[in-house]
Write a structure and sequence with these properties.
Blueprint: E1 18-22, H1 29-32, E2 39-42, E3 48-53, E4 56-61, H2 63-73, E5 78-81, H3 95-107, E6 113-116, E7 119-123, E8 129-136, H4 142-159, E9 163-166, H5 184-195, E10 198-202, H6 203-213, H7 217-222, E11 229-235, E12 238-240, E13 243-245, H8 254-264, E14 272-276, H9 279-285, H10 287-312
Parallel strand pairs: 1-2, 1-14, 2-5, 5-6, 6-9, 9-10, 10-11, 11-14
Antiparallel strand pairs: 3-4, 7-8, 12-13
Helix pairs in contact: 4-5, 8-10
Length: 313
């Protein structure tokens, strides 16, 4: 179902949840039940197999994978963080992803849903979508904003929970732009305005871009629609030649913790912070080290919430 609909009021803002962790097969289930994880972020594509029927693909949920994930997460609430929707592709987004998500929501309801503000498919010669290999940023133009805003509103109505767009890490400069939009922060703000959606503020992505593209991350935060930030990501990365990469492969760098403390106190509708790490690096880092990262995120969460309560009391 991809037809555009007139924007309606956005779904209600979720209540604060605390600190989350992605579902990572192989981590001890006790980590999720330790009290250090308040909610779990699921990437449902990882619980699927892909099937092709001619030029049409389908993502098929594997019941055994879903049940293993449920057993690990127990009674914790979940949110969805997708990677394969390709919401910014000009020709079409990934219908197979949304068809799968319909089934996933019926099997395991989620509190909110997020995707990357990017595109990663282009039309192929055989009618199939061609993967370009990495998510690519959209040009900050009114055309891009209206395309993604219409699709974002559609998703919000479809699932009845908040839909968030994540600011991407990228390594490209001199993208075509409209002066009325300006840059990627202006693009996100315009999409949020038109599409009645929220933002997943990925602070490590922002940190990457600040280093690689040469801008002030704090000044960038000050320009964002922080009242529409529902979730924050923190993560680790590494240098690859002359670029700092969004590798999601280790502990959170100290400057990103500082950005979290700065941003968290300025996001009045924030529902959660997620320590984001990929599967293989998580297993290498280990449950004890991951628990320490979660403890630090909890400490900042509590400090900022207590400070906010004192300032309004």
């Amino acid at each position: 179902m991809t037809s555009e609909r007139a924007p309606l009021a956005a779904p209600a803002t979720p209540k604060p949840r605390g600190v989350g962790l992605p579902y990572i097969p192989g981590l001890p289930p006790d980590l999720y039940r330790s009290g250090g994880v308040d909610f779990v972020e699921i990437t449902p594509e990882t619980l699927c197999r892909e099937e092709w029927h001619g030029s049409t693909s389908a993502l098929i949920l594997m019941p055994e994978a879903v049940e293993r994930a449920k057993a690990t997460c127990g009674s914790l609430p979940i949110v969805v963080h997708g990677v394969e929707l390709s919401i910014g592709s000009a020709a079409n987004w990934n219908d197979a992803y949304l068809d799968m998500l319909d089934r996933f929501q019926e099997a395991w309801p989620f509190l909110w849903h997020s995707e990357h503000l990017s595109f990663q498919t282009v039309p192929g010669q055989d009618g199939r979508s061609l993967e370009v290999g990495v998510p690519l940023p959209l040009p900050p133009t009114e055309e891009s904003a209206r395309l993604v805003a219409g699709r974002s509103a559609n998703i919000g109505h479809r699932y009845g929970v908040p839909f968030l767009l994540e600011n991407p890490a990228h390594y490209l400069t001199d993208l075509p732009r409209d002066s009325s939009i300006g840059d990627e922060i202006g693009l996100m703000a315009r999409i949020i305005e038109l599409g009645h959606c929220g933002q997943l503020l990925d602070l490590h992505n922002l940190y990457c871009n600040a280093i690689n593209l040469g801008f002030d991350a704090v000044a960038a935060i000050d320009r964002m629609k922080l009242d529409r930030v529902i979730e924050i990501h923190v993560a680790g990365g590494r240098w690859l030649e002359e670029y700092w990469t969004d590798a999601h492969d280790g502990r959170v760098p100290e400057p990103v913790w500082e950005l979290l403390r700065y941003a968290l106190s300025r996001c009045p509708n924030l529902a959660g912070v997620v320590f984001e790490i990929l599967d293989s690096p998580a297993l290498q880092l280990g449950a004890t080290a991951i628990a320490r990262e979660l403890e630090r995120a909890h400490a900042i969460w509590q400090d900022c919430r207590c400070a906010a309560g004192a300032s309004t009391g």
